[in-house]
């Protein structure tokens, strides 16, 4: 079973109030030197069968239509190596 | 300016209703072959200055005390290469 990760982040031009809240809280908590924080979502998908081009194309479509709102969000699909790689 | 990513995911033994909702919706939307979905958070931190061991140690502490709830969540800190690498 292979793991595919879909990262969904707000586009850079979209205001990210969650990230701003985190960034503003950091100095109060004693953490300096962080210029910007953006918060997004991470989906870990356990894929049955091999992660070939067809499977990745399907996951890409799934991310585009369902996991991300592509009006305001960007997404990235990455294959993660697992202990038992896809054959 | 270097980018450091903190991924926060629920621990494997903790129920993830958000991920389950996504997983159950997928077959209805025509996507089969996904055995499991876990949903978590991704923080992208823009770090001022070099990302050396001291900076990473601070970010690790920040993630542990502030970004993740380590009772129920695991986190991972990763340095991402950017166009303008830290000097």
Automatic annotation (TrEMBL), chains A, B:
GO MF: ATP binding; phosphoribosylformylglycinamidine synthase activity
Entry keywords, A to Z: ATP-binding, Cytoplasm, Ligase, Nucleotide-binding, Purine biosynthesis
EC number(s) stated in the UniProt entry for this protein: 6.3.5.3
Reactions catalysed, as given in the entry: N(2)-formyl-N(1)-(5-phospho-beta-D-ribosyl)glycinamide + L-glutamine + ATP + H2O = 2-formamido-N(1)-(5-O-phospho-beta-D-ribosyl)acetamidine + L-glutamate + ADP + phosphate + H(+)
Enzyme class: ligase
Pathway: Purine metabolism; IMP biosynthesis via de novo pathway; 5-amino-1-(5-phospho-D-ribosyl)imidazole from N(2)-formyl-N(1)-(5-phospho-D-ribosyl)glycinamide: step 1/2
Pfam family, one: PurS
Source domain of life: Bacteria
Protein's UniProt keywords contain Nucleotide-binding: yes
Biological processes annotated in GO: 'de novo' IMP biosynthetic process
Compartments reported by the entry: Cytoplasm
InterPro entries associated with the record: PurS, PurS-like_sf
Any one cellular-component term (Gene Ontology): cytoplasm
Annotated HAMAP family: PurS
Subunit: Part of the FGAM synthase complex composed of 1 PurL, 1 PurQ and 2 PurS subunits.
Family of this protein: Belongs to the PurS family.
Function: Part of the phosphoribosylformylglycinamidine synthase complex involved in the purines biosynthetic pathway. Catalyzes the ATP-dependent conversion of formylglycinamide ribonucleotide (FGAR) and glutamine to yield formylglycinamidine ribonucleotide (FGAM) and glutamate. The FGAM synthase complex is composed of three subunits. PurQ produces an ammonia molecule by converting glutamine to glutamate. PurL transfers the ammonia molecule to FGAR to form FGAM in an ATP-dependent manner.
Protein name (Swiss-Prot/TrEMBL): Phosphoribosylformylglycinamidine synthase subunit PurS
Annotated gene: purS
